[in-house]
């Protein structure tokens, strides 16, 4: 099976330091900092990368499940909103909101919703992030 790799380097202390995160394939290298993670500073943060991974994995899982059910999608687009909150134990990710839109000719909404929920349950990234409350809002753009 595949082993995927990502790297991060951090220089300096937490509040004044800065770092770079990169994907092993070289497809992404992005700066991150205290302000990009905990405030509105420029750059990325671990939670955005988790969100991108989750949205990408779910979109592929949904496309697969729809195809297996005889309803291949034209397009699936997903956004993941990863909530980072301070708790008494430090920072936690208690919730992830998946919002997806799919153009799937020939499927009714009830079938689409059932398949979307199954894709959420089967998505490997959903499984690894299951300590968070993962919600799904799935919208069918075309159907019957």
Task: Walk me through the structure.
The chain has two domains: 6-38; 46-142, 2-Layer Sandwich (GMP Synthetase, Chain A, domain 3), CATH 3.30.300.20. Strands 1-2-3 form a three-stranded antiparallel β-sheet. The chain has a three-stranded mixed β-sheet with strand order 4-5-6, with helices on one face. The model has no long low-confidence stretch (mean pLDDT 95). It is built from four helices and six strands, in the order βββααββααβ. The longest helix is centred in the middle third of the chain and has 23 residues, at 46-68. It has 144 residues and is α+β, with helices and mostly antiparallel strands.
Topology of helices and strands:
Layout: E1 6-11, E2 18-23, E3 29-33, H1 34-38, H2 46-68, E4 75-87, E5 90-103, H3 109-122, H4 124-128, E6 133-142
Parallel strand pairs: 5-6
Antiparallel strand pairs: 1-2, 2-3, 4-5
Helix pairs in contact: 2-3
Short description:
This protein is α+β, with helices and mostly antiparallel strands. The chain has helices at 34-38, 46-68, 109-122, 124-128; strands at residues 6-11, 18-23, 29-33, 75-87, 90-103, 133-142. The protein contains four helices and six strands; from the N terminus they run βββααββααβ.
> What portion of residues is helical?
25-40%
Strand order of the largest sheet: 1-2-3
Radius of gyration: 18 Å
Strand-pairing-aware structural class: alpha+beta
CATH superfamily of the largest domain: K homology (KH) domain
The profile of the biggest β sheet is:
3 strands, antiparallel
């Amino acid at each position: 099976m595949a082993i995927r790799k990502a790297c991060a380097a951090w220089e300096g202390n937490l509040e004044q330091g800065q770092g770079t995160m990169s994907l092993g394939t070289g497809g992404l290298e992005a700066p991150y900092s205290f302000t990009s993670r905990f405030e509105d500073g420029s750059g990325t943060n671990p939670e955005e990368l988790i969100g991108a991974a989750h949205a990408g994995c779910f979109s592929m899982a949904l496309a697969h499940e729809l195809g297996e059910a005889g309803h291949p999608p034209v397009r699936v687009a997903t956004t993941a909103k990863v909530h980072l909150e301070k708790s008494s134990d430090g920072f936690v990710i208690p919730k992830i909101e998946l919002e997806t839109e799919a153009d799937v000719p020939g499927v009714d909404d009830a079938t689409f919703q059932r398949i979307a929920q199954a894709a959420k349950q089967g998505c490997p990234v959903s499984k690894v992030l299951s300590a968070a409350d993962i919600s799904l809002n799935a919208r069918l753009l075309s159907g019957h």
